[in-house]
Design brief:
Helix content: 25-40%
CATH architecture of the largest domain: 3-Layer(aba) Sandwich
Number of helices: 12
Number of strands: 15
Strand order of the largest sheet: 3-2-1-4-5-6-14-15
CATH topology of the largest domain: Rossmann fold
Order of helices and strands: EHEHEHEHEHEHEHEHEHEEEEHHEEH
Distance between the termini: 24 Å
Length: 369
């Protein structure tokens, strides 16, 4: 099979979809790997490393998309990439289709197949291709939140961990999944006061047993959220419904409960955001202010730490890439429930119910049973 790895074109995206060792494994198995020149530069991976691994370096994205049967990326196809995707091709990447109708309809029109990292479930029901980036984003959310609490960044002028004689910041984490647990862990290390909210009592019991005493694990309901919004200096939105649009846990009117200069880091923005006032931003222009509350809504947070993120992501994706090339998508899907769960669009037909529900679009039955 011919596998293509283009350079990511989303603004401020520095990750790449395949490591040189992944290219070597594919070539050793008898496959061809096309890598666009400069694809790994943002992650500190030189073209020479890919060439030494047996990959074929090509000059531009047109050559990658034109030659590849399977395209392995990081972020959702950008408009120029959509124009290059062809019927019968398989694209394996993060899509987050439920947050973007234009992307959904644009990809449907290509007649290609979309395999989404974020909906792939393993045999234990976990999301193994979302977990590593959720770990990065969760830890980064506190790093970024601490920065934007600084007064020059329009924040409250609060040091996250405080100092002797001065109280630390209060951090509200909405959602105790991978993002939320990692955010709480890092914030606890700084010495902040954390309220970690979730609707799963089982998850809360587990985290209450294993987290430090400065993390309060609380059941998430409307009253508790509103109460804690007034308490919080920093809010981390880390809600996830796999494949679906994130619910709004913070409504527009709720901002009036918050302190001037408080900061919201909406990690759920890839799936539409869990704060009603959130809108996508970039690393170049990461924040905006609504009602004196600073909003940080960068859609590709892990892209800023491209080297760490690329290694973490590719360690997780390579086994599934190897499954796909072994006998093609139909064989891989028949043999692997995980691969089947990643299929969001198959040959121009929408098969992911959560995406169809988000936009009121027709949904076909899953193609591989």
């Amino acid at each position: 099979m011919i596998v293509g790895v283009p350079r990511e074109t989303k603004r401020d995206e520095y990750r790449v979809g395949l490591l040189p060792v992944g290219a070597e494994e594919l070539v050793r198995a008898g496959h061809t790997v096309l890598v666009e020149r400069g694809a790994g530069a943002g992650s500190g991976l030189a073209d020479d490393a890919y060439a030494a691994a047996g990959a074929t370096l090509v000059s531009d994205a047109a050559a990658v998309f034109g030659g590849a049967e399977l395209v392995v990326k990081v972020k959702e196809p950008q408009p120029a990439e959509l124009a290059r995707i062809r019927a019968g091709q398989v694209v394996f990447t993060y899509f987050h289709l439920a947050a973007d109708r234009r992307l959904t309809e644009g990809f449907l029109a290509t007649g290609a197949t979309a395999l989404a990292y974020e909906t792939l479930r393993d045999d234990r029901g976990r999301l193994p291709l979302l977990i590593p980036m959720s770990e990065v984003a969760g830890r980064m959310s506190i790093q970024e939140g601490a920065k934007y609490l600084e007064r020059p960044q329009m924040g409250r002028g609060i040091l996250l961990g405080g100092v002797p004689g001065v109280a630390p910041a209060n951090v509200l984490v909405l959602g105790a999944g991978t993002v939320g647990a990692n955010a709480a862990k890092v914030a606890a290390g700084f010495g902040a006061n954390i309220a970690l909210l979730d609707t799963s009592l089982e998850r809360l019991r587990y985290l209450d047993d294993v987290t430090p005493p400065n993390i309060d694990c609380l059941y998430s309901d409307r009253h508790t959220i509103r109460e804690r919004l007034g308490w919080a200096d920093l809010v981390i939105g880390s809600v996830l419904i796999p494949g679906a649009r994130a619910p709004h846990l913070v409504e527009r009117d709720d901002l009036r409960l918050m302190k001037p200069g408080a900061v919201i880091i909406d990690v759920a923005i890839d799936q539409g955001g869990c704060v009603a006032t959130s809108r996508p931003t970039t690393h170049a222009e990461p924040t905006f202010v609504v009602d004196d509350v600073v909003h940080y809504c960068v859609t590709n947070m892990p892209g800023a730490v491209g080297r760490t993120s690329t290694y973490a992501l590719c360690n997780a994706t390579l086994p599934y890439v190897m499954q796909l090339v072994r006998g093609g998508l139909p064989a891989a899907a028949r043999d692997s429930a995980a691969i089947r769960s990643a299929v969001n669009i198959h040959e121009g037909r929408l098969v992911q119910e959560a995406v169809a529900a988000a936009f009121g679009l027709p949904c076909d039955p899953p193609p591989f049973g």
